[in-house]
Amino acid sequence: MRPQALPLSVLEAQYRVDQFNAAYGDILDRGDYAAWVELFIEECLYKVIPRENHDAGLPLATMALESQGMLKDRAYGIVNTLFHAPYYQRHVIGVAQILNDNGIEIRATANYSVFRTKPGSVSEIYNVGRYLDIFIREGEGLKLKERVCVFDSEMILNSMIYPI
């Protein structure tokens, strides 16, 4: 079967989502948590949930932040109050699949891998899964209305400090 050409609107949405995800990973990898907060609209949802719970429709999540204010609190805590052994993250985000684009919202999904490196140590796979996203178009850019990180492993190494 020969692939069909995609309409320009789908290609434009694909480009914008992939560029957004590249910037998202870069912002987190640099530890710019104030900029991470600004990637979301005020009334947003950021959730990190195990695949087992998500697939079973169970609401229990590892992290659930239900507004930009809650994201700001998390960012403040990471920078100013949490004490932990430092490590670096590196996000590898796959090409997004556009599920729906109604001109206002874009629903998309993308696979991700997050690697963790502690100073003086080897890198390790920290978290692997997929993003389930709802983007809002804002001018020429996008903001997240919802990002649900569904991770595949049943266990998290130590604790989850930084956003996925």
Number of domains: 1
- Beta-strand segment tally: 7
β-sheet strand percentage: 35-45%
The CATH topology, please? Nuclear Transport Factor 2, Chain: A
What's the main sheet like? 7 strands, mixed
Overall average pLDDT? 92
Reported CATH architecture: Roll
List the helices and strands in order.
HHEHEHEEEEE
How many helical stretches?
4
Which structural class matches the secondary elements?
Answer: alpha+beta
Q: In the CATH hierarchy, what is the class?
A: Alpha Beta
Distance between the termini: 37 Å
Radius of gyration (Å):
16 Å
Q: In which range does the helix fraction lie? A: 25-40%
Pick out the low-confidence regions. Answer: none
**Shape annotation:** globular
Structure described in brief:
The protein has 164 residues and is an alpha+beta fold. It is 29% helix and 40% strand. The protein has one domain (8-151): Roll (Nuclear Transport Factor 2, Chain: A), CATH 3.10.450.50.
